[in-house]
Give the backbone structure.
Amino acid sequence: MTPKLLAMMNESEQALLREVEPKRLRKLDEDDLIDLHTRIRRARTKYTKLYRRRAAAQVGSKGARSGASVGNSKTRHKAEVFEEALSTVSNRLAVVAHEQAEALKVERLAAAKGQRKGAAKGTASPAKGKSKGKSGATRGDGALKSPVRKRNAASQRSAKRRHQAKRG
């Protein structure tokens, strides 16, 4: 960022832009990056809306949109600076979020392996929800919810209800 652009900013805006420096960004965790992202997005939105509003108000007096944006360059430059800062923070946030997701995945897989080893030491009973068919092979839960089984179950329910209705 040029010193001229930095001079246009007030102290709070300069402080916000200093937080986007690469050294400072590397120190932030995901939650802090989300907070920074929100603050920069608000500043960018503020100056973008302000620029558009002022330019729209000047269109009538200038007679064209191109002439309306000339006197509003300071606000446009601020919006551009915050747009670049937002892009930088968004990229860093994406990297940190991906790293954290990978770490959680590794942790979850390690916990699953630990549970599987603990289950292997237990009894040798068949897994819950699996039944043996005529051949003795174990079937998965998918066989219990097949269309044929659903139809048969519905048929049995309706036959039972018809029988109960006849009885009284």
Notes: The chain has eight helices and two strands. Helices lie at 3-8, 11-18, 22-27, 30-62, 65-68, 73-120, 141-144, 147-167.
